[in-house]
Amino acid sequence: MNRCPFFIFLAAVCFASCSHEQSVKSLLTPFEASDSTQTATYDETIQWWRDLEKTSPYVCVRAFGDTDAGLPLHAILINSSRNFNLETIQKNGKLKWLINNGIHPGEPDGIDASMLFAREILSDEEFKNTYNDIVIMIIPVYNVGGALNRNCCSRANQNGPESYGFRGNARNLDLNRDFTKADSKNAQSFIELFATWNPDVYLETHVSNGADYPYTMTYLLSHPDKLTPPLDKYVGQTLSESLLEKMKARNDEMIPYVNLFGSPPDSGYSSFYDTPRYSAGYTALHNSIGVLTETHMLKPFKQRVESTLNFLHALGETLIADAAEIKESRAKADEFLAQQSEFVIDWEIDRSKSEKLHFNGYRAYYDTSSVTGELQLYYDRSAPWEKQIDYWAHLKPLKKVTAPSYYLVPAAWNEVVHRLTLNHVEMTLLPEDTTLMVTSYKISDYKTSPQPYESHYYHYDVSMEVSTEDVKLLKNSYYIIPAQQRAKRLLVEMLEPQAPDAYFNWNFYDEILQQKEWFSSYVFDPEASQLVKNEVIAAKLNVYVDADTASRDNARSKLAFLYEQSTHYERNRHMIYPVFRIE
């Protein structure tokens, strides 16, 4: 049994300050024990944190939630007040910082750096005063299945460690594409933790792929253009500048994440558009600040871990200084969100304006590959350069929608209801049979990926016909969901089918795309002959045939079109998006 479910410690489990500091300092990490060549295994990681818990009264280790690997997730809570009761922490008003490691266990830098970070701050005699206003929660290994699938060689582009975990989880899902569709048990457990904990700041640790350049650390923030004011200004200006300055002061200069594959940085690059499938996009739905570290894959493992440790300290120092400002900005963002009616549900990089970014790079050149016989991009590290390059830092709105007063979500689609429940969405079942005036969508067109992507055939470029009508609804058949709640933005971006990570696009409503009732041509043909006597229907048929050349000599196709004009067609089901809006 875990000795510290999240409650207040009794005095009996406290330690003297000086003995505590020395005991914490003596805890060697597996990374250090291997002379910085190995990342800790899953078992070593959990054991190290449990040893720290035994040593420090400021640390609580708790198992929570399921994973696809059949083992639980763990959370480490670090609190200078020795209080691990969430309700009490909320009342005390401390800033909550959540760190998530090992989402891609082949990118393990944060797993080891977090151990070093915790040991360093806890062994500091000023810890209680320094971190008085902050509570830290650390998920030591999020992708448990990937961490257990340890190997030497799956990261072809990476310089160490000697062995590491695998990107896919136990179901071979990429967990950093799963924050909204939540196919994995890992994501479902995380969402519930996030909704309960409601962190002010979220940090996720990675190792990059892509171009070569001198920097060890690059970083990514929840895109400021997508954040609710005034969080947009705090993240885009104050937080970004603070992190850059503090890393530079540690002789570990960094730049925004280099989102380039197959081309060199010389000609510039753009910021990353973080849709809600990614963590930084998901946290934005909750007015929480998302931060990602991306150390450079080709730098030695030791150097990458040290850089991640530097970033943890830089972010920690910033949060200490800005705790009150962050909490105030979040409170104001919540107030803004409560009044907000129009939402941007899709964005694109704004290519009309760029900023100048001071960049250190390596000479890029192309040479003929001896393998493929084609030109191949290479980098010459003996020829560094330093100059201003174009950086497309901004997004522009692509699609907007006005939030309704209520959404009506059918109870029959339990996978959607389950995900909304995990996000602590407030909703109630329709208490009695009723007729309501609703806005409904008919899906008129969409595209689907030809290959599976993260276990789905993803939809995109959705277009719709909008109508208003009275619908008869049975008791308990629909959930009534007020848009005016903390999860307002999440509701809009999950339930509006044109949003890129809406549940519709992840196939949760694909049942509506298939027609269920059909006809025998010889039975329906006589009725069709009567339908075409109607001039309006006949004109529609002519337009259809003229527009679709494949239908001109296809009797079945013509009859199918006429069938859709008849009373037999299931026009209240086929292609009708089952989520309704009450304006």
Head-to-tail CA distance between termini: 50 Å
Helical content stands at 25-40%
CATH class of the largest domain, please? Alpha Beta
Q: Report the CATH topology name of the largest domain.
A: Aminopeptidase
Strand arrangement across the biggest beta sheet:
1-2-4-3-5-9-6-7
Largest sheet: 8 strands, mixed
> Strand share of the residues?
15-25%
How many domains, in number, for the residues?
A: 4
> What is the CA-based Rg, rounded?
27 Å
Structure report:
- By secondary structure, the protein is α/β, with parallel strands linked by helices.
- It has 4 domains: 11-339, Zn peptidases (Aminopeptidase), CATH 3.40.630; 355-396, no CATH class; 402-514, no CATH class; 521-565, no CATH class.
- It has helices at 17-25, 30-33, 42-55, 86-92, 109-122, 127-130, 144-148, 185-197, 231-249, 279-284, 301-339, 414-422, 488-495, 521-531, 535-547, 555-565, and strands at residues 59-64, 73-79, 95-100, 134-139, 201-207, 217-221, 255-256, 269-270, 289-295, 342-349, 355-368, 375-392, 395-402, 406-410, 428-429, 434-448, 459-473, 478-482, 576-582.
- It has an 8-stranded mixed β-sheet with strand order 1-2-4-3-5-9-6-7. The protein has a 6-stranded antiparallel β-sheet with strand order 15-18-14-19-16-17, with helices on one face. It has a 3-stranded mixed β-sheet with strand order 8-12-11, with no helix packed on it.
- A hairpin with an 8-residue loop joins strand 1 and strand 2 (73-79).
- The protein starts with 16 loop residues before the first helix and ends with a strand.
